[in-house]
Amino acid sequence: MAEGDRSTVEVAGRRLSLTNLDKVLYPQAAFTKGEVIDYYARIAPALVPHVRDRPASFVRYPDGVQRKGFFAKNAPRGTPQWVRTVRLPAPGSSKNREEVDYVVVDDLATLVWAANLAAIELHVPQWSVGPRGAVRAPDLLVVDLDPGAPAGILECAQVAQLVRECLAADGLTPVVKTSGSKGLQVYAPITPSSDRRTSDYAHDMAKALEKAHPGLVLSRMAKNLRDGKVFLDWSQNSAAKTTVAPYSLRARDQPWVSTPVTWDEVESARRAADLQFRAEDVLARVEQLGDLAAGMLEKGPPLP
Fold first, then answer.
1. Handedness of CA 45, 58, 254, 225 (dihedral sign)
2. What is the predicted pLDDT for the residue at 94?
3. CA angle, residues 29, 112, 68, in degrees to nearest 5
4. What is the mean pLDDT of each run of 10 residues along the chain (304 residues)?
5. CB of 23 within 8 A of CB of 32?
């Protein structure tokens, strides 16, 4: 049923009211809210397994990506009762909350509901929660590769291969994806371990790579040191931090997506466009190649 700028649809047995479907959220690409929702609905079989059981933070852009968005952790007023939420401590909350009711995107209907809120970006931690909301130890290790201009995604591709070698030498199985912006992110599934342990491991690796490749790799956070180098952000393993989920859209000029890629694609990249993918590209890739990030869902070995 459609009424004005509101449409009522059934998604996986849930009735949803979708609004402002013709509103342009990506002005330079003429990409509408309806297209955002359609993308998330179609990519859900690949995306949802990567966010299931993980408290989600949304970056919402109700006025489009060229206007200021906002980071949303707390479930908004009017959240349907069938949307799973989990109440967790919120240390350092900007709104002085002691606890936050996080949304957990466990299914297609919740994903479409979130997209209707103009939640363009989905971010999740490296840990998950149990059926009753108990916090589990991190089961993913992540290294976020952040280039400092004039370095870009091609330099990140060089460094990602170095990270891959380090992880593989320690018996881990790395998976790589684009950030959907200017960098790359390398993950590896691990036997659940404390965030302190995963952060220390990633930090030690970053320092070793900086020592071996001082002109290319940086392990320190100081922004004045980043020019022309790739910062290995080991701190993303902190339990308090999140990274953009696989297959999430990004709020850029174009509807770029944080896209899993093959290591062959990383190695053979010769221009930035080789590692940049729009929503329609990603849907075609998943149809052809399946979920290239499926390895992130496997049980991993213990950290050495």
1. negative
2. 55
3. 50
4. 70 95 98 98 98 98 96 96 94 69 98 98 98 96 97 98 98 98 97 98 98 97 92 97 98 98 98 97 98 98 96
5. yes
Is the distance from CB of 102 to CB of 88 less than 8 angstroms? yes
Exposure string for 57-72, b = 16+ CB within 10 A, e = fewer: bbbbbeebbeeebeeb
Q: In what order do the strands lie in the sheet with 6-11?
A: 2-3, 6-11, 14-19
**What is the Cα–Cα distance from 177 to 195, expressed in whole angstroms?**
21
Domain 140-297: assigned CATH number: 3.30.70.3300
Query: Does the predicted TM-score (pTM) go above 0.85?
Result: yes
Q: What is the pLDDT of residue 6?
A: 84
Residues of the chain with CATH 3.90.920.10: 2-124
Bridge partners, residue 58, by sequence: 72, 122
Question: CA 64 to CA 36: how far, in whole Å?
Answer: 11
- Cα distance between residue 101 and residue 87, in whole Å: 4
**Matching CATH number, 2-124, of 3.20.20.80, 3.90.920.10, 3.40.50.300, 1.10.1740.10:** 3.90.920.10
C-alpha pair distances (Å), 232 with each of 29, 184, 270: 31, 10, 21
Q: Please list the residue range(s) of the chain that carry CATH number 3.30.70.3300.
A: 140-297
Between CA 285 and CA 178 the distance in angstroms is 14
* Residue 247 DSSP class: T
Q: Cα–Cα distances in Å, from 126 out to 107, 192, 219?
A: 19, 10, 20
